[in-house]
Amino acid sequence: MNIPAIHAMVRDPGGAVIGLDFDGTLAPIVPDPDDARIHPAAPGVLAELGSLVKAVVIVTGRPAATAIRYGPGLEKVPGLVVLGHYGFERWEGGRASAPPPPPGVLHAEAALPLLLQRLGVEGVTIEDKQRAVAVHTRRAPDPQGTLERLREPLAKLAAAHSLVVEPGRMVLELRPPGMDKGYALDLFLAERAARSVMFVGDDLGDLPAFAAVRASGLPGVAVCSGSAEVTELAARADLVVDGPDGVVALLAELAAAISDSSASGAR
Ligand SMILES: O=P(O)(O)OC[C@H]1O[C@H](O[C@H]2O[C@H](CO)[C@@H](O)[C@H](O)[C@H]2O)[C@H](O)[C@@H](O)[C@@H]1O
Prior knowledge:
8-stranded mixed β-sheet, Alpha-Beta Plaits, binds the ligand O=P(O)(O)OC[C@H]1O[C@H](O[C@H]2O[C@H](CO)[C@@H](O)[C@H](O)[C@H]2O)[C@H](O)[C@@H](O)[C@@H]1O, magnesium, Rossmann fold
């Protein structure tokens, strides 16, 4: 790992913030969003890393409580913060806080079944996220074609209810504007007075976090959890690893390098 920011983290782990996306990064992608679960080795590796660095933060489009529920063991990661709903929501020490959901979400969600019926799309599923609503096409007969077909009508529906469309891996999410993973990460780095940063993501919604790593002026590394499905992130990353298996291996390597460096410094 001959990346200057990683060397900075190893030299000064007490200044390092490790930011991670959830789906596709810590949890393998599966057809049904309710079946997603964290990689079995991830909580242990994150617990080790959490005891070495300034902070571990998960920044996800999921509700924060869902990431915790689908990530058994995460609650044991020292000092873990989960920023859910792209940063609108914060979970820390077992407590979640968030502003109330805007009424547009409920109205848009209520209009969706009829809209989907009119469009005649098959196999599309709706995920009620309380503060947002996601329309999934992964289980449709033609997932990509169906996603393309839905783009314009969902953009109109979102605009009619003062929402924005967040595109992702076989999903179009209608959510409130005014927050993204970049802004969320930026605020967190300032709050913790970070001296270096890593962010690991797999999807389009992670691009603002990559931009925040660059804009921070800190030694920073943007890591792509690679997949054949999304290629845009790899092009903007400093390092590409092979999905959640590769992410866990990278984090374990980082934890080991920090521990070895601290041990040799102590000798
Ligand atoms: O920010 P993230 O943690 O990456 O969350 C983004 C979306 O992830 C989930 O959908 C994705 O994962 C599902 C389970 O593997 C998969 O079935 C789906 O195709 C993916 O798009 C989640 O369901 C969404 O609500 C999140 O916004």
